[in-house]
Write a structure and sequence with these properties.
Length: about 180
């Protein structure tokens, strides 16, 4: 299964370069059906890493298995991303966009830094297309979480293979 890697320094241009990279790879592989959504989700996660994570930047890894696509954005910051209950006009929409476009098929790999085997960071991943792609993929099924969730860390569920998967919530649940 082909894998493609892009280093993304903490620069304002990195999200656009990541978006163009993912789009170009997927269109070249004739995966046009998922190219736009994958490019947008990649851009959002690289933006989150560049804005919120400590360190030199991020590494984007794109794995393709048939029509299945998995993108993971690694950085050296152990802080987990936060899926906020709401967002303001300036920020807070990125993970909501990823969650909506991937239909909840995203999560984190805590303790992995920059995708190079170093401890202390994380990988935030998403999947699109049929099935699962990439190493050790396992999507845990989770049930809707009642009540308000203020932090992604509070909703982190574990699957048998150890990947973090966000607890799914019903849309519009404000309580």
């Amino acid at each position: 299964m082909p894998e493609y890697t892009l280093r993304c320094p903490r620069l304002d241009t990195s999200p656009r370069i990541a978006r163009d990279f993912v789009s170009a790879v997927l269109r070249t592989l004739q995966l046009d059906a998922v190219a736009d959504d994958a490019a947008l989700c990649s851009s959002e996660l690289v933006t989150n890493s560049c804005v919120h994570a400590e360190g030199a930047g991020a590494v984007l890894q794109l794995a393709v298995d048939g029509v299945a696509v998995r993108v993971t954005i690694y950085d050296d910051d152990p802080a987990l991303p936060v899926l906020r209950e709401g967002y303001d006009g300036e920020s807070g929409r990125g993970l909501w966009i990823v969650d909506a476009l991937t239909e909840g098929r995203w999560g984190i790999e805590p303790g992995i830094g920059m995708g190079l085997g170093r401890d202390g960071g994380k990988g935030v991943w998403f999947e699109l297309g049929g099935g699962a792609a990439g190493r050790g993929t396992c999507l845990a099924e989770s049930t809707p979480s009642p009540g308000r969730v203020s932090s992604y860390a509070a909703t982190l569920a574990r699957s048998d293979c150890g990947h973090g998967v966000p607890a799914r919530r019903e849309r519009g649940n404000k309580g």
